[in-house]
Amino acid sequence: PLPDSYSPQYVEAAWYSWWEKQGFFKPEYGPNPRGVFMMCIPPPNVTGSLHLGHALTNAIQDCLTRWHRMRGETTLWNPGCDHAGIATQVVVEKKLMRERKMTRHDLGRENFIQEVWKWKNEKGDRIYHQLKKLGSSLDWDRACFTMDDKLSYAVQEAFVRMHEEGVIYRSKRLVNWSCTLNSAISDIEVCSYLHANFDISVMKQEVVVATTRIETMLGDTAVAVHPDDSRYQHLKGKTVVHPFCDRKMPIVLDDFVDMNFGTGAVKITPAHDQNDYEVGERHKLPFINILDENGLLINVPPPFLGMKRFEARKAVLQALKDLGQFKEVKDNPMVVPVCSRSKDIVEPLLKPQWYVDCREMGKQAADVVRNGELKIIPDHHLKTWFNWMDNIRDWCISRQLWWGHRIPAYFVTVNDPSDVDGHYWVSGRSEEEAREKAAKRFNVTADKISLRQDEDVLDTWFSSGIFPFSIFGWPTEDLRVFYPGTLLETGHDILFFWVARMVMMGLKLTGKLPFKEVYLHAVVRDAHGRKMSKSLGNVIDPLDVITGISLEGLHAQLIESNLDPLEIEKAKQGQKSDYPSGIPECGTDALRFALCAYTSQGRDINLDVNRILGYRHFCNKLWNAVKFLCGSESVSDRWILSRLSAAVALCDGGFQAYDFPTITTAIYSFWLYELCDVYLESVKPVLSRTDSEGQKQADICRQTLYTCLEVGLRLLSPLMPFVTEELFQRLPRRHSQDSPSSICVTPYPETSEVSRGQRSSVRMEFVMSVVKTIRSLRADYNLTKTRADCETSHSTLHTHFRLTRFN
């Protein structure tokens, strides 16, 4: 028998393992007239547990996968995890320091990597457990990790091929450098913060320049002014002398200078600023690097040599005052680049790194969107796409880390004193292959070649960029079975960092787009519109929403995290404010439905847990509706079938347009407002009749109600797989040998299944308006708890006839 009330814990306990055991999540091989749907998961980082942003991604992806599966398509949703080089290394280093007071250097490279693998195994298992609890219908036999042997081989192959073609090259350029991490970092790992800074004006002979980074003036090699600035025309071709050394610096004319900002004269430090770097290239200026990898000053005169960068700031300012070259200080709020991982200020540093030449690949990526081969949804993201692709810069792919794919490049030394140019970089799938390449290049025997592999690892986005085809066996022929995919669904915040790289790498290495469509969802924020942040205490584990958790339980999670004591206290206050009684048990189905209901294209999601709880009550309504059929038998009529048909049409259109709010609204309105609130109430008198005519009417109603429940559950199944499976299995179905064993493999409803009655809809709308008026009168006269007679008068015979038919 069906339990009296809905319990998420009861409903969601066993269905997932049964689905998995039955093989419902596996693709069918061979020809299929309904087509193929293939999608790979955006592999979560093994830095920790999944949060509600991941839950949104998986709710959308799973309901799409289930919808395509129910349409009879060969369906594959491929799981995996990302090694997340820099992010994972940082959290493991913090853990080492907190628990053992050790750095990675104390352990050494090999032992440290073993520690990271331990972390990966623990967190990877946790992530997969969370995905299963979310109901994600992934083919787990295909689960992969970006540092698995198969994927690592593909990464190596991609690098070697692109290096041999000259698309990957080595160059000394400005990079985002974290002095704390001792590594280059990507743009996505650089946060911009508005900082109260000061413009310091400095006299340089006849020119006054202003700067907020006074310590970098030790690396100045020129002063720039705008060529049209009349104030400085007399200085054309002249030089100024650096105040702390005998360096003569030319005054250069460059359009980069804004003559209306500050003094109109700008100091140029080519080795420590991107704009200055480009000015230095144009005017062939010297590049003087004044910072080492740890942020200590080098290549500068005493007493600044060896100082820390921010100590030098004070020292240089004082020295300028002593020389009489300091003019004034002004407030100037500015944007400061900060490393999102280490929280230290990012320095532009000149470092030799590996780069990908993105010019041709970027043009291809722009062209496939312009000509319609690749569709990006919603289309307001097209502007961002073209802005990135049309102005793309070469991609720095090397990182000075230990955790990641070690770069398959080798520094060559030829053991022959007669060779003056014996240093070179070669790439290879193995050291032996690299040695053979080097011997051939330098025309010597292999025994005269010495190799040293690059210590650096590849940017995580490099392996992520080939993920859609590396998981299917590239560069082998196995790739043809499921590549290219159908859809890429992810958050809009990684449109360039991941989506663009996959498109570029797919076209470059396979000659094909990795997917036909890209659907971008919004970012999940808390109920106050704040970004999810561990230090704010608003990062929520989806399992805590599913099973519920006390405030004390939330606090305990903070204590076990990597946050420092001050951040923990701040986060506790945030949790106490938002969840004073903890988080109530909502269940997986309610969480999934809420996330999809929030997904209005283009807007960020301010997630309120109370709204999720409301959808748990909705599950209870479903429960009672089916219990009504199972226990007392049920009724319906042409109107409810017409409303069901309308809901089917809206859902089908919504899935095709990735319009999830339309889907959730249509289903919610049908079940709650039309089926439960109106029809289950209206058929109760019919079921209570005992005469033969009444019994005939009741039988007709039961059949129609059964149709509503069965079709309605199938409509809802992609979004709420657990409760719909439970109720579907309990329906008094018309059993046959070919009946599907699970709702997740039944056909998704089509409008042709359900009749539409326009006339019955008009009649029912009229009756409902009368009922609504009567209910309002009862409320106005405080008769809500009284059974009162109601007398109606009719303006026409037609109205009288329409109403008396429903007595």
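That was protein one. Protein two is written in the same sequence-then-structure order:
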Amino acid sequence: MLVARDFSVQAATSDAFADTRLIANAARAAGISAPLLDRTASCTARAWPSATDGWTWCRSSGPSRRGPRRSAGRPALRSRPLAVGVTSPYGRGRVCAAGGRRARGGARSPATVPRAPPRCGRYPVSGPGGAATDAEERDAAFADTVRRTGASIGALYLLAPDEQVLCLDVLSGVPADFAAPWVRVPLAAPMPVAVAVREDRMVWVGSQEEMSRAYPRTAMVVPYPLALVAAPVTGVQRWGVLMLMWPATRPPYMTARERGNIAASCRRLARLLEEAAEHGRLPSPADGPRVVLTGTDRRPVSPTMAVADFVERLPGGSCALDLEGRFTFVSSGACDLLGRDADQLLGTVPWQSLRWLDDPVYEDRYRGAVISREPVAFTACRPPDHWLDIHLYPDASGISVRIVPCGGQPPPAPAPRNPARPAALARAGRLYQLMHLAAGLTEVVGVQDVIDLVADQIMPAFGAQGMVLSAADAGRLRITGYRGYAADVIERLDGLPLDTGLTPAGQAIAGGIPAFFGDPDEMRRIYPQAPLMSDKQAWAFLPLIVSGRPVGICILSYDRPHTFPAEERAVMTSLAGLVAQALDRARLYDLKHELAHGLQQALLPRSLPTIAELRVAARYLPATRGMDIGGDFYDLIRLGDTAAAAVIGDVQGHNVAAAALMGQVRSGVLVHATLGTSPDQVLARTNRLLVDLAPDLFTSCLYAHLDFAHRRVTLAGAGHPPPLRRLPDGDTRPVELAPGPLLGIDPDAVFPVTEMPLTPGLTLAFYTDGLIERPGVDVDEAIDGLARHLADADDRDLDALVDALLRQAGPDGRRTDDTALLVLQHRPAGDGERHPGE
């Protein structure tokens, strides 16, 4: 091949010249007319395929000594990258795109390695005659959905088989590193993908403002204008969720047709997953996500001399980045403006090869362009005083970049950091990961929450395969959670002395300094007596210190030798401080919650009496937030052979005083009920007791007297939600209860009574407000909804019925208040039918 006199252009036929996208964007920025560009591209598209089949071309300003020749013994042009040498009439140097190697004399010769088979993520795309794998079919369906919906970013999450976690299976539109904080998403997380699966509904977020209102934690770490939908992938079972994102330029609403198309795509994915499950070929969460290319297929347009000259004539500089941020094309004008040769730029990311761009602010501009798919512009200073306007034009395949000198006084811009400083410590990607993880650590409550967050989010963020979290307890390290280790290994590691200097863990805690070992040899050199109890090959020992006091240690480990750069060590060390504080708070919470729960259980009845004519089921669930004791209570009282009493109540507050008052109320009701007092008098006397004991605490209460001899139920209420009654024919509704005031307010209060027949098969449900109160839901609507669930439930097993009612009240497992539920069903003596639960 001839060596061009002035410069060469190199490109692969698969992405020739970053295709004409770069030229179109450059022309638009430079004011070149669209018709001229169209004619140039059209001529190129028509002339190039027939003129260059099997040939390697070069043109110089003068006649060639050898001219074009067929590459003897080499693959045809369409099976290998193409190198084209072009002489510039302006003599401005080289225009280079990735794809060739340097030849003698400064030119780049074509690469001779045959192009790899086409791939879809990690999986080769099956050609004619080859059977597609389950993963390929799923990836193809996923890619088709992303293309048809016009989404810029797509992700498919699958439920882990034995965990309440969503694992990222397939990703498109962004580099895998961008998704590192979200490779594993807890099902209880306040994020759109988790909500869609928990509530089995499509979640639409139409704008950045809506994201900030509904999901502030997600908005904090993805502060870009975008629209998002998360749709559950459900068939015969729940499989996961499909997430799609669009730039903010799309309308902030979703049409019914779009919803239908996305729902149909989710059903298609569910069918593919069901087929894979039937053959035992479901993906493993340990496989990690696959990155799938979903860009629209385009006929490649190979660069010609005219196109190369066209780019060189444009003012300023042009270059292209792939989605990973690497240079794939650099024009000679860009080389001049950036102060680097093309060879120094191609294949690198700007903040590595151009130290004056090594600032998180600039990297964030790139991240914003990739995620939002909107043009981004900023001003940067190339030392000492060369100000440049840089414009980014993104799409699904990469980013076209235009660089022009800044005219006039530049706007305020972040000062480039001194290259001599460790600038890598503040990489923008790491900063976003740190923000995301820090936000998650502020939300954890118990020790198990800390373990899950470290395993689900911190491990994937650093690419670790193992984790051990230990807490300091009585001079020893007690393992509280782990991942990636065999149980026998954990058993040997559990309970190591805290002050030993023989192991990295003990030394790290004693000195409060993290320790990093890239391979076993490095470990043995420093700690020759430390036994290697597992097959791990690299370790990070992160001491957890709070106010100078060791609370534990977090160990991240790797299956292969691993280099720990300074940036990663700094982020791990910072994160260890946050984990330490979260673990310390969580241990305190668990301790207080355990004490509170134990006291609560002691105040509630250990078991309910067996009554011949009643089937009974009851539950008490504490709130999932808060560490104090609740005041909810219930009881069933035997009143001889022909009667019984049921009571349920809720004392105001969540503290020791409320729990103590709850115990006194329950005792008072029990005493008055066993004396044969009528329901209204039971409440009246208990009310006077409360006024004397605690005038600042109020109590709601519902008391029911069941007379089996006369088939009557007499009820009296004190500011408590009405019970639900279900007849044998399924008719279910709230009981129209005469209202009474709360207990503990007026010593002379009167509590009216309500009577109803006690028919065979009658079911009564007593509950506290924790079962019906939810933000934004009217109480009456919530009671009606609870009645509908009671009507639809199978009453042959009361325990299953009670569990079903509790699930409908909190489908995501979160409860803001304590909940008590007592269900009674009348079964007259002589009814020979046996039921589950009796």
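The chain has five domains: 1-114, 122-291, 315-422, 444-595, 604-826. Keep this in mind for the problem set.
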